[in-house]
Specification:
By secondary structure, this protein is an all-alpha fold. It has one domain: Orthogonal Bundle (434 Repressor (Amino-terminal Domain)). The protein is about 65% helix and about 0% strand. It is built from five helices and no strands. Pfam families: HTH_3. This is Helix-turn-helix transcriptional regulator. InterPro entries: Cro/C1-type_HTH, Lambda_DNA-bd_dom_sf.
Length: about 70
C-alpha cells in the first residue's frame, strides 16, 4: 500500500495547510513528516493517516483515493 502524494499535497494546498502546520497539528516533528512524505508515505501508521484525515477534514472517498492505492 502506498500513498497518493500528489493528491495529498493538493489537499494540503486546497485547505491552506503547510507541511509544518500539518506536522504540528498531528503531533509529529516537521522533519519526520517531511521524510515520510518524501518516501511516498509508505511509513505512515494507521493512526497518522486518521490524524491527517481529521486535520484536513477529508471525506471517506478522499481518504481512499489518498491512502488506499
Amino acid at each position: 500500500m502506498s500513498t497518493n502524494m500528489n493528491l495529498l499535497r493538493g489537499k494540503l494546498k486546497e485547505r491552506g495547510v503547510t507541511q509544518q502546520e500539518l506536522a504540528q497539528k498531528i503531533g509529529m516533528d516537521s522533519s519526520t513528516l517531511s521524510r515520510k512524505l518524501a518516501s511516498d508515505g509508505l511509513k505512515f501508521t494507521v493512526g497518522e493517516m486518521h490524524d491527517i484525515a481529521a486535520t484536513l477534514n477529508l471525506s471517506a472517498n478522499e481518504c481512499k483515493s489518498i491512502f488506499l492505492l
